[in-house]
Amino acid sequence: MKLKGGKQESSENDEGSKGKMTLLLALVTLISAFGSSFQYGYNVSVINSPAPYMRDFYNRTHFTRTGVPMDNGLQMLLWSLTVSMYPLGGFFGSLVVWPLVNCCGRKGTLLINNIFSIAAAILMGTSELAKTPEVIIFSRFIMGIYAGLASNVVPMFLGELSPKNLRGAIGVVPQLFITLGILVAQILGLNRILGNAEGWPVLLGLTGIPSLIQLLTLPFFPESPRYLLIQKGNEDKARQALQKLRGWEDVDYEIEEMRQEDRSEKEGGHFSVLSLCTFRALRWQLISIVVMMMGQQLSGVNAVFYYADSIFLSAGVDKNIVQYVTVSIGAINVVMTLLAVFIVESLGRRILLLAGFGLCCVSCAVLTLALNLQTTVSWMSYLSIVCIIVYIIGHAIGASPIPFVMITEMFLQSSRPAAFMVGGSVHWLSNFTVGFVFVYMEEGLGPYCFLIFCAICLATVVYVFFIVPETKNKTFVEINRIMAKRNKVEIQEDKELNFHIVPGGQATKKEISSSKL
Hints:
The protein is built from 25 helices and four strands. It has 517 residues and is mainly alpha-helical. It has a two-stranded antiparallel sheet. Strands 3-4 form a two-stranded antiparallel sheet. A hairpin with a 5-residue loop joins strand 3 (489-493) and strand 4. Helix 19 (349-373) packs antiparallel against helix 20 (380-399). The longest helix has 30 residues, at 416-445. The radius of gyration is 24 Å and the shape is globular. The two termini are 14 Å apart. Residues 1-16 and 494-517 have low confidence and may be disordered.
């Protein structure tokens, strides 16, 4: 790659940054996503179908202990805690992303994380036998810690393994497995399978199986080459990992890119969360991630899955078939996310974000109208189901998968762990908020609660349209250069491809060194 007149010019070496989908890269992607992301989705919806039997277990245990039936207020509180402890644990899991991935590596963090999942699965699976409802709530929190780590580390790990021309598609794979986890939980949660009085403890306990598979297989795959070279200083292992992942010996171009970034980071060091939040040259990247993550969760997607059955019942669906309708929605979610894997590199991230949040906005508005009129207009119940389907399609193609891809792409190696920690914390805190308050919103506002989600989706669309750039098929430095204009900083380029960010025309030593590649 050469620089002429301050502009970047492509050469034959640019091909070195491109790659193909090798068998090893495909396997490590599938194992990481199945062993981690799958469980995030599974535990989002696993308590949906067996909810009546779990609540009955809470009531029976309370009556056995006190001799008094549980009142409705306490029952609602305990169930809200059962739902919301999962995203609250996810928030705390996100808080330890930065230290763990820097200390133990991306792959090492995923392996350690399996301990949380296996422990929580054993506790939940034996909770009825031990007659301890509290264990379910506690285990949901532990499972949330696992999901909080997994939801951040898997996209980071796969983003660093991927060549730039496959980074978007591979980055959507974790979301694909999240939707698969939701679908499998819905299928297994059918009354005739495990969603019954006898089977629900087994349903909760099955979540440990993917973790066990990952624990046994992931050690045979390479660590992130960027972590090995830049953070561990082991170029030989980084080169070997790249050669295995790319399927060819000549990986000099990518190694040289990493060397340049390594030299800059040895001078400037790694970003902490505090330094990331105060660093002017990354201001709009950070704001963009916060807005997209808040939009992703506060748009109400998990409210739809947490309370899907009740939404369909209120829409007039017969209670005998509501579970099968929910499974069908889960299948649509999987199919549309799979579509996103194939179109993200052709249409780009920005288009999918705008289309996704736009569809969610319109469907929430129409759903509010349909739910209000369903008692007077018979076909409105069918329109409600169509609105939910359109909402799921919108979230599946853009709002759910793309924000995590953008965190990987909008930040360099030195700031990426801190950025994932911030983005993940916002993601899970927003998730917790929706999970905890939606049942009260539904009771107090009725169908009008979806207008709040509509407004949030609209605000996110406006922000993405005016602020978020397209990052398709661009290197991390090229994206950094695009955002420099938004941050009102100047990027100076030297002959060695060291990129200097100079806020307001001047820069401190740290600002220069931490903005080089």
